[in-house]
Automatic annotation (TrEMBL):
Keywords: Glycosyltransferase, Transferase. GO terms for molecular function: glycosyltransferase activity. It comes from Denitrobacterium detoxificans. This is Glycosyl transferase family 2. The keyword ATP-binding does not apply. The lineage of its organism: Bacteria, Bacillati, Actinomycetota, Coriobacteriia, Eggerthellales. Residues 8-124 form the Glycosyltransferase 2-like domain. The keyword Glycosyltransferase applies.
Amino acid sequence: MVENVLISILIPVYNAERYLERCLDSVLAQTYGSFEIVAIDDGSSDGSPAILDAYAQREPKRVRVEHRANAGAAEARNRAIELARGEYVAFLDNDDWLDPDFLEQLASHVGEGADIVFGGYRRPHADGSVASEIVPHPGEEWAPFAVLAAWAKLYRREFLLANDLSFLSANIYEDLYFSIPAIYAAQRTEVVPYCGYNWFMNPESVSNTSQRTSEGLEFDRAMSALVDRVGVDASGRQDALFVHAMVRLGVFSLFLTRDGDGPELAAERTVLLRAWLDAHVPTWRSDLYARMGRPRGDSRGARIATWLFVCHPRLFAAALRLK
């Protein structure tokens, strides 16, 4: 373990008084000793600012807080990166928490300066039951993409700054503008077959709201910005895994909103997605990873859904209508 490497835990906070103490306590309970918390209060109107200030007063060497007008989670994370003092940073959402050995496990794989260390996550309910768990494994082609959120990883801060990696102010997929370009910019990465991040199945969270519709969600804007950010390789083509990732994201967006949209709008959005892919990801119809067993490391459901979308559109349409 590299015990002298300082790690900054970056937490955007907005009206999180119900879960914030659990989140902060999970960081303070880490078995790895060299860390700081950088919490950005994004204009909270509940008791979150007072909770943060109390922790900063009790742990002045560990906890730093900045209060600011509300500008969204993306801007809060970008500001936290600026304020961080650590050689590495990790992101934590205000209603989630870490296992006690999270930092210890990932820091032990920093080695000689890995740009990113990838870990896994679980999805616990309030009653303690676990809905799902994702653990990446070295050698799996999908491992760097297994967790597309920014959290459950360590990032070398100078690597982020040198590559101008930031979060996009959008109401959907804001993490992806940061995490996917980071994968392509990294020179050295480590995949750790370990799960220590708890992504709470919070029924009040925007990402977990059931029956949501596509109305107002900026899927096209976020995905277009991502395509522009990653660009093409030396041969002038988009990377094959990136092509697959974009198809998969589009498919996910359809399933995310199908119950709220209803079958007719979901069918219309499927047509629009295909047109968007034709314009922005021109090789998607020959997606090399749209296969039953590919990419290795992705979930079975995601592989099947993407394969049907690319290779069997009528079957995909039927699957989209299923409850």
